[in-house]
Amino acid sequence: MKSLFFIFLFISTLLSNEKLEKVSLQLQWLDQFQFAGYYIAKEKGFYKDVGLDVEIKKYTQGDSVTQKVLN
After folding, report:
1. What CA–CA distances, in Å, run from 2 to 22, 26, 44, 60, 62?
2. How many domains, in total, are found in the chain?
3. How far apart are CA 16 and CA 37, in angstroms?
4. pTM for the predicted model, two decimal places
5. Could you tell me where the beta strands, DSSP code E, fall in 1-71?
6. Enclosing domain of residue 28
7. Which of 52, 43, 60 is nearest to 19 (CA)?
8. Strands 21-26 and 52-57, how do they pair?
9. CA distance 12 to 62
10. What tens digit of pLDDT does each residue of 10-66 get?
11. CA of 5: how far to CAs of 8, 44, 62, in Å?
């Protein structure tokens, strides 16, 4: 899954323009070390380098992930 994400980032780099595309990343569980890479990439500006304005949405128990993604 992560390799597909980085392939997407690489292709986005080739096709990117100056305007940032807003995207949401919905975490599948409570904040844990396994998600650290997403936060670090945002902090270091890697997403912006490829034209993405990423909003990381934290998981909260009881919420429907499908509904959060659709909103």
Report:
1. 20, 14, 18, 22, 26
2. 1
3. 22
4. 0.58
5. 21-26, 52-57
6. 2-70
7. 52
8. parallel
9. 34
10. 776 666 556 899 998 888 777 777 888 999 999 999 999 999 999 988 877 776 767
11. 5, 17, 27
